[in-house]
Design brief:
By secondary structure, the chain is mainly alpha-helical. Helix content is 41%, strand content 7%.
């Protein structure tokens, strides 16, 4: 009877030790798994992290300046000196063809913007009698699209004779005031005369004029 009691006590001890040991292993394994996987974040933490990431991306996008835009549009045609008092009438100018076509005197290239818009280039690029620079880079279609600076009209500097605004000065060269009328004629006539010299066939082209062909360009209403 005593032996049976001892056997029961021994069996209980063995069973207790096994359960305790097995439980210890289970706890250790759980710890290892958790350590490798990292702590489990609260349910709302992942959503908050995503929202924060999106907010940061939006802030970065907002902080990045968009490419600047120049003037909204360029008119294809316009009238030069609309208030001109010339007896010959006003002149319609086709900007689209002059800016995009092969309109250099030799007909092999487009006319550069600064050929007419001569103030829209760096000061270092100016040649006498030009003295005024309004840009740090030469005006081109690409630089125009990338800039917020508008292109000034000829009349911003070259005024009608006797109509110089207060605080302004009429440009001059060779002892002559470069009125809008004279500035237009110098630019247009010198280019057309050079083209006619290099390509005499242009004289037969409808609408083409040289210095002495006033009424081809000037149209009376």
């Amino acid at each position: 009877m005593k032996n049976l009691a001892k056997l029961c006590v021994l069996g209980a001890f063995v069973l207790f030790s096994f359960v305790t040991f097995a439980g210890g292993l289970t706890s250790v394994e759980r710890y290892r798994v958790r350590a490798q996987a990292g702590p489990t974040p609260p349910a709302n933490m992942a959503a908050n992290a995503t929202n924060s990431s999106n907010a940061n991306a939006a802030a970065t996008t907002a902080a990045t300046p968009k490419p600047a835009a120049g003037d909204k549009s360029i008119p294809k045609t316009f009238t030069l000196a609309q208030d001109s008092a010339s007896e010959y009438g006003e002149v319609t100018f086709n900007h689209d063809s002059h800016a995009a076509g092969m309109y250099s005197p030799d007909g092999k290239a487009a006319v550069g913007c600064v050929e007419c818009h001569h103030t829209d280039q760096p000061k270092s690029a100016l040649k006498p009698p030009l003295v005024t620079s309004e840009r740090d880079v030469a005006l081109t279609m690409d630089s125009w699209k990338a800039s917020t600076q508008k292109v000034n009209t000829c009349r911003s500097c070259h005024f009608q004779e006797g109509s110089v605004p207060d605080g302004k000065t009429m440009p001059a060269a060779g002892g002559k005031d470069l009125t809008n009328e004279l500035a237009y004629h110098i630019n247009c006539n010198s280019c057309h005369d050079a083209a006619a010299k290099l390509r005499p066939e242009l004289k037969k082209k409808t609408g083409f004029a040289t210095t002495n062909d006033c009424l081809i360009c000037h149209k009376k209403n």
